[in-house]
Amino acid sequence: MEMQSSPGNVWGSISLSLLEEGNATADTYDMTVIIPTFNEEGNVAAIIDAVGGVFQKSGIRGEILVVDDSSSDRTIPIVEEIAGRNGNVRLIVRKEDHGLSQSVVEGFGSARSDILQVIDADFSHPPELIPRFYEAIRDGADIAIGSRYMKGGNIEQWPLKRRIISLGATAFGRILFPEVTDPVSGFFAVRRDVVSGAPLAPRGYKILMEVLGKGQWHSFVEIPFVFKDREEGESKLRLDTMVDYLRQCAGIVRFTVTRRAGPVWDEWLKILRFGFVGLSGIFVNTGLLYALTEIAGFYYLLSAAIAIEVSIVNNFIWNDIWTFKSARDLRFGRRISRFGSFQAVSMGGLVINMGILYLLAEVAGVYYLVANLVGIFVAFVWNYMVNRHITWMTR
Ligand code: GDD
Ligand code: MN
Q1: What confidence tens digit (pLDDT) does each residue in 100-114 have?
Q2: In a 10 Å sphere around its CB, with 0-12 CB exposed, 13-18 middle and 19+ buried, how is residue 348 labelled?
């Protein structure tokens, strides 16, 4: 007995278990589908069956990992019985720190594959789409997100109140992740390395936000899906989940600001730089308008046209060498075509700015300087979004 606690034996057993883990991870399964459950006796057998059927049909060697928070109904015995018959079905019963996100993170840690999928037990997320998520990650994406808010996605049978809450949460999440149409989706897949070293602080319902904010990822894809409300059992969403959500957003912001790195940081840095460049353009524009009119004696509308064009060129150069420097292709032809695109987008922005100024000031009677600020803001969003996606084609 004494001998077993000697350092040699301890290390021996640790390295052996690491080896076993390693083998299982590399060879055993292509993918792990994590199903968090809490009192899902009406759904759990059917969802396991459905996911198993998807594996069979698609040829994915998949593992099903049910992570339960000590359900008081028959969920646990039902899953135990299924796991007894199927080698690829496992059950974790949690006893402490009750919570959906915590359960998912525990599933990440215990999975025996490199592609991790999360899906609800209540058929809100269509299991038939799992192979699409699998392929997306296998083909190089770090995260695959099931989206209800992109073309092809939708929500069925949700009462108006829930729709509004969800839209609010999503809009808030998009401030942090402007590129993700559904950052609070519960239906997603990740490559294991994205989360394995990440300092996730799971709490509440929105584990994907945590993964996006703190995981190590570079690329993602979105897969549209239609969210169906549960037919069995009831939703566990409560008011304090919303409070949790706000605290989670604050935590991601804190993490981002202290680290000065990560996806949220990268995105906001681009937005900030784009804003600075825009500001420099206003100075160039105003300065030139003044100089050409007052010093060179040009007719002021001609000065304005030249000033606008020069400021567009100014903004392009700074955005190309600074704001979007990571997305540049240095070949001359590419640079010219980026300029063409930027020019067109800027003209669009100008029309938007003027259009809003006119509508708000003339039609709605808003004070014209305020109307102009609104116009500038909308044009800025337009310019940033379109240029980011089209001119500099960054993901
Ligand atoms: N282990 C565990 N612990 N599982 C839980 C817990 C918990 O505390 N609470 C809920 N679950 C499980 C449920 O059993 C179900 O499988 C899944 O998590 C989703 O729970 P629901 O209660 O059905 O969630 P919902 O329909 O209100 O919320 C859905 O929409 C959100 C986005 O609006 C889910 O898809 C969420 O994942 C998603 O974030
Ligand atoms: Mn549900």
Answers
A1: 999 999 999 999 999
A2: middle
